[in-house]
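Hi again,

Forgot to attach this to my earlier email, sorry! This is the prediction with protoporphyrin IX containing FE bound. I've pasted everything inline since the attachment limit keeps bouncing my files.
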Amino acid sequence: MTHKSSTDSYGSVAIGVHWLTAVLIVGLLASGVLAENAADPATKATLLTLHAPMGIAVLVLTLFRIVWWWRLDTRPDPLGGNPAWQEKLAKAVHLLLYMVMIGMAASGIGMFVLSGSGDILFGGAPGPLPDFDNFAPRGPHGIGAKLLMALLVLHAGAALYHHFLRRDATLRRMWFASTK
Ligand code: HEM
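Structure tokens for the complex follow:
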């Protein structure tokens, strides 16, 4: 496997960024929901100390991914054999995933900056946590979380459908092994 993609499979950089982002997003959804529901302020602060750097890592990876596809690599050819509406839906879901990931990171950073709670981000003494509901980016961050969960169900559901029902190479070629 090479670091760049070929006409029939993804390269190691694209695969690595994809799965690292996937793990971080699962961690972000879990830590975000737990923080939202945490009654104890110290637990909430600890969760947000993990949550914020993971969110910034997703932002960096997503910006890197955009530059990577734009300037440095070319996506494999579509596998073919799928109805046009499915190809269009997949493209729309991918585009929305990029937009929501960037929007989530931007609104998260916005909450930290506006509330002056950057100490939590950098692991310093957190002090009393602000009520994030008082800051405008909290609304979009909550809506984006629900949207992201729905997109992930569609995205992962489609991958599993291709792998187990269609039995094609859609999921296999996004892994570190030959598609043959
Ligand atoms: C892709 C990136 C991100 C994802 C997927 C994500 C996900 C989430 C989720 C699911 C929630 C709970 C929302 C709810 O239940 O209404 C949440 C809350 C929160 N997130 Fe993020 N987040 C991301 C980035 C960030 C970043 C970069 C920061 C800060 C620098 C941040 C700070 C917060 C804060 C302060 C809360 C509110 C906790 C509360 O109100 O109790 N997030 N996030």
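The chain has one domain: 12-174. Residues 119 and 125 are 6 Å apart (CA to CA).

That should be everything now.

G.
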